[in-house]
# Entry
Amino acid sequence: MTAAAPGAALQVRNLRKAYKDVLAVDGLELEVQAGECFGLLGPNGAGKTTTMEICEGLVSADFGEVEMLGMRWDSDAAQLRHRLGVQLQDTQLGEKLTVLETVRLFRSFYRAGPTPAEVIALVQLDEKRRSRVGNLSGGQKQRLAMACALVGDPDFLFLDEPTTGLDPQARRQLWDLIEEFKASGRTILLTTHYMDEAERLCDRIAIMDHGKVIALGTPRELIASIGVEHVVEFSAGSAAKPLDISALRQIECVRQVRCENGSVQMQVTELHRAVPALLDELSRQDVPLTELRTHSASLEDVFVTLTGRHLRDE
Amino acid sequence: MEHPLAQLTLVRFLEFIREPEALFWVFIFPILLAAGLGIAFRNRPADVLRIATVTPQLAQSLRQEKLLDVAELPAAAAEEALRTGKVALLALPGAAGGVVYRYDSTNPEGRTARMLADRAVQRAAGRVDPVASTDQLMLEPGSRYIDFLIPGLLGMNLMGSAIWGMGYAIVDARRKKLMKRLVATPMPRHYYLLSFLLSRLLLLVVEVGVLLGFGALVFGVPLRGSLPDLVLLCVLGSLSFSALGLLIASRARTIEAASGLMNTVMMPLWIVSGVFFSAQRFPEFAQPVIKALPLTAAIDALRMNMLQGASLAQLTPQMGVLAGWLIVCFGLALKLFRWR
# Structure
């Protein structure tokens, strides 16, 4: 085995983990550079959380190696824990405790770090410091979880779906926090199944499916890799007058056509040529258009292209 | 910065006192139970005997005697009451200002009523007893049911609060993934378990104080043994039950599974370990098993200390049983404990 590259904060080699009959992680390879925000993107059950938990030292792998900050779990666990900040998926902190009591408890476990009051200020929960955790909103709870992750002044931060289930405003608040941490030059490993979150926060992304990395790169690179820039979605036709899909594939600059719940998705390279051609084709078939949307190609489209499924599909 | 063990213990303590239901079950319930049973099984004063008479003068004389309940009835009704046993004796005016007592001499109540009634009549007529006498009643603390009950309730409370306290808190932390989150910090794991024992001991002071204080002040339950010994017994008992609670909670993932296990363990102990009635009532062959149970040992030791003033040396067998449970359960729990 080769030593970790000098800039690598985390190296994972040939990682394997099975739960009963399910192979959760299947020969995974990862390398996270110091100072970058690295995203694991994938649908539920792709093995993101298991990978995180192995890296966090909570689960032992069946096979493979993990090297974090130049250390290993089997020999340097105590050292390593002091340098990691962890936010787990759906941890429920004690409801009867106040924000300050909770942060103070977590602070007591670490040798060094900011004071509880400083961390609470950082996550903007000053006004709530005397409130019970049970009375906080979802977004406030997530920011408290973040405070507990930051209280040991970590070099490496694990965030497992930090904004799942939050409203848009609460998500943006958390993104600001994550970007602040990133700006201080420290490393983040983040899982999400929100493509906008990954695109906004992550320097590099690994798309995971069935316990493996199926694509790796910056958000730009990944989107560019599917060779399309735009996606056109529309609904047309009816049971009496169905649309002939195969004709659409003949249109110039249309790459892929998928039909799903009565709506059609086309990946196109040049929007300004594809849309008029589509309209011409519909009028030739004499099928009325009932809905039309376009968006720039996203990581979601990358995932759809690679797997034929959506990220949010169960 | 504060010590993690102090913080963990503080948090445990805060979470407990902010749970109103837990406060009720641990502090209020045992007192209600003790008060209720203490009243129900109190030693009653000697029974009052019902007698009947037919004239107001006789009735007035007889009513001077507090142990008689005198009914003044028409002659026919009075005869009927005596015949049907509703009264033990019938006092009738006799010839020349005398009194006639009608009663069944084979009935002890009748004979007692005869003596009491005659004394009342004679005194009302001006008899002065030649020898002055006073009564001293025997209702000695230490031999009443409430004296038996309070140490039993104390033992039951030590067990219940330790097992419930450990069981629910641990399984809840596991279910909410809080335990997993804590394990992801540099927190030393034995501090986590230790904090449960420490917060238990903190609460123990209050729990034991409240129940014993109630028993001593309201019912005059005696504390004949040495108080430090009693504290030591409570601590040892609580630690053994906490270890048992830890073992019960070591793997369960849901509150339902844990409470099923807890009830399975505690229910038989409540019945056979002599909380409400003596464990000696169970057949001879079962006694060795019953004596080896932690609750039996705890309650026996508490009773011997409080009621008979037994020294620690006399309680060696019971303390040995408790220490054995402590070591075995704690060792097993550490081996089996699921940190996720």
